[in-house]
Design goal:
38% helix, alpha+beta, disordered N terminus, DUF6441, 6 helices, 229 residues, 10 strands, 2 domains, 4-stranded antiparallel β-sheet, two-stranded antiparallel sheet
Length: 229
C-alpha cells in the first residue's frame, strides 16, 4: 500500500483512513471471537447432556452495534444465569421457605406447554385430591411401576387408569375400581409415584467455563491476524 502525503491535511486524512481500517479489522475479529465463544458454550452444554433449550439461552452482542471501532467489545451472556452458574460451579439445592423436602417430579407428572412439570399443588388440583405420601418401606412401593429414584419419601396416587386418547393418568371411575365389574382395571391397584421427596439435591460441576473462556482468549490473536491480512 502506498500513500502520497502532502501537507498537514493529507497527513490527518491518512491517519483517519488507517484508524478506520484498523477499527474494521478489530471489530471483525471481536465479532468472530464472540460467535466462537457462544458456540463453545452451547457445545459444552450439549456435551454435558443439559439440552438444546438451555444451550440456546447463550447469546452474544458486539458493541458498538453496526459500527466499527478500535474499542469494540463483545458481551456473551445467558438468559438462565442461575442454572448455568450452578452447573459451572456445582451447587447444593435445598428447600426454600422452611420446607423440609424438595419435591422432584417423576416422568408420570404432566408437563406444561413450556416443558416444565406441574408442581405438587397443580397435580393435586388436576386430580382433585391430596397425594398420599409414603416412606420407602411402605407396601405401596411394591405395587408401583414408576421408575423409582432414591428418596426419603414418595408422593402419588392409587386408583388411577390410563386415558386411551392421551396415554395420561386420570382418576378411575367407580366401576373401574370394582373388581366384580366388567370395567374393572387392575392398574387401579398400583401406586403411581408423582414426586420423589429428598432433603437436598447436589449438582455436579458439568461446565468448565474458565477453560472455555481461556481457550477463546488464546484464539483471538489468530483471529486478528486473519482479518489484518
Amino acid at each position: 500500500m502506498r500513500h502520497s502525503v502532502g501537507g498537514r491535511d493529507s497527513l490527518d486524512g491518512l491517519e483517519r483512513g488507517l484508524e478506520d481500517e484498523i477499527a474494521g479489522f478489530m471489530t471483525a475479529a471481536i465479532k468472530d471471537g464472540a460467535d466462537e465463544l457462544k458456540e463453545d458454550w452451547r457445545d459444552a452444554i450439549l456435551d454435558a447432556g443439559l439440552g438444546q433449550k438451555l444451550a440456546l439461552t447463550i447469546r452474544n452482542e458486539v458493541y458498538p452495534r453496526a459500527q466499527a471501532s478500535l474499542d469494540a467489545a463483545a458481551l456473551i451472556w445467558t438468559k438462565a444465569p442461575g442454572i448455568i452458574e450452578s452447573y459451572g460451579l456445582g451447587a447444593t439445592i435445598r428447600p426454600a421457605n422452611g420446607g423440609r423436602y424438595l419435591w422432584i417430579p417423576t416422568d408420570e407428572v404432566l408437563k406444561k406447554r413450556n416443558g416444565r412439570a406441574l408442581d405438587p399443588q397443580e397435580v393435586e388440583a388436576r386430580f382433585g385430591r391430596k397425594m398420599v405420601v409414603i416412606n420407602p418401606g411402605h407396601w405401596r412401593t411394591k405395587t408401583t411401576t414408576t421408575a423409582m429414584k432414591r428418596g426419603v419419601a414418595y408422593a402419588g396416587f392409587d386408583g388411577l387408569v390410563i386415558r386411551k386418547s392421551s396415554g395420561r393418568w386420570r382418576n378411575a371411575t367407580p366401576n373401574q375400581l370394582n373388581k366384580g365389574h366388567r370395567s374393572y382395571r387392575e392398574t387401579t391397584r398400583q401406586f403411581v409415584i408423582m414426586f420423589t421427596l429428598v432433603p437436598m439435591v447436589k449438582k455436579k460441576k458439568l461446565l468448565d467455563l474458565d477453560a472455555i473462556r481461556a481457550a477463546s482468549e488464546a484464539r483471538f490473536p489468530n483471529l486478528l491476524n486473519k482479518h489484518w491480512r
